[in-house]
Amino acid sequence: MKNIMENKYVKFGIVALLYLLWVIWLGNYWFLPGLAIIFDIYVTKKVNWSFWKRRDGKNSTAVEWLDALIFAVIAVTLINIFLFQNYRIPTPSMEKTLLVGDHLFVSKVAYGPRLPNTPIAVPFTQNTLPFTNGRGKSWSNLILRPYKRLVGFGKVKNNDVVVFNFPAGDTVVVEQTSVSYYEILRSIADSFQSDDEKANKHLMTREQYLAKARSYVWKNGHVIYRPVDRRDNYVKRCIGIPGDIITIKEGALYVNDKLQADNGTQQTSYIITTNGTPFTEKAFERLDVAVSDQVTDGSNYLLPLTVNNAAKIKGFINVTSITPDFKRPGIYDSQIFPHNPRIKWNVDNFGPLKIPSKGETVKIDTTNICFYDQIINIYEKNDLKVKDGVIYINGKAADSYTFKMDYYWMMGDNRHSSADSRFWGFVPEDHIIGKPKVIWLSVNKDMTGLKRFRFNRMFRRIK
At the topology level of CATH, where does 252-324 sit? Predict the structure, then answer.
């Protein structure tokens, strides 16, 4: 058996078969000439494809290390594109399902690997080069590929935990990469409007304030564009799939008018009043409340808690009251999708809103275009304009639109500490990266020594 496996034709046959299956999966038969290269590598050996090292005689240690490094970079890059990728949880938006410091194996084949839009890039970087303060692009626009997803094992389902590219991350202010460009514009527009109100000046329209804010940002900051696959990676739970109707009433989530049960790890912010006796650090440890989540003035606390933890804290002898910190219905929040003052939604009172599906046609007018302008203009790359009450798509008046992609609704389990679809709307299918399967490492930055490692979370499946 050993002699057979060492035969050059057997080696060629195995590698050629794997390569052929990969080409079929890829659906791009322009790669078939690669079989000739494989044949030469294993059989004829006419060309030294590893030109940096000698094929006869001994190579130096430096060359051997270089050869191993090149192989490792190529292998890991292909694995990251087609099979799985590591992802580290940077924020508490998914607590208690996922904690800050959790490292995840994200399966690319769960929904089908997505081919890179920007294949020319520095390996192991998402969008910026190290040590460039966010200004150095890690990719090249020399080759830009359209969206294509290979066949996977399934589709995104309700309640799946999903990793995806940040939809509102197409445009980025380098000086404030942690905040959405559109959120920055809205905040500055709100500030300009507030200043005019205080000065009793004539108020402009919302569009005029946004235009003024846009001019200010572009003048005072460095603004860049990122292709889909170079936008920041986010992880949330898929609350709604194409065709679902999402509604939130006083913090309670409904999908297609059906109340969604608490999954046990979902958190809500609670206002807690005590008799003046503060909570101990041991109490916070038992409740698994991170130091960064503890907001207090000494006798009052604002804490993110699961339903079970809220019940536990209610039984503490020093607690006099505990109430969920829900926003009232009818209170408009300019940061909440669709960012229209006529639609008075907030994080706890939202919808109903239907999620678009591929091939679906909707009627559009000036009263509902705010729900779809980003889809039409940015995600599906049309020229959208509204002039004198008429909607123009690619220069033609339009009263309907047919969606080219499926869309999803993503929310964090830590409902009051999650920037999610309530803030930036729908997630297009071409932004879906994969499904996290396992926590392979978990590090608690608030601890020291071996306590930093959450051994009880390692190799735990994600639900």
Answer: Alpha-Beta Plaits (3.30.70)
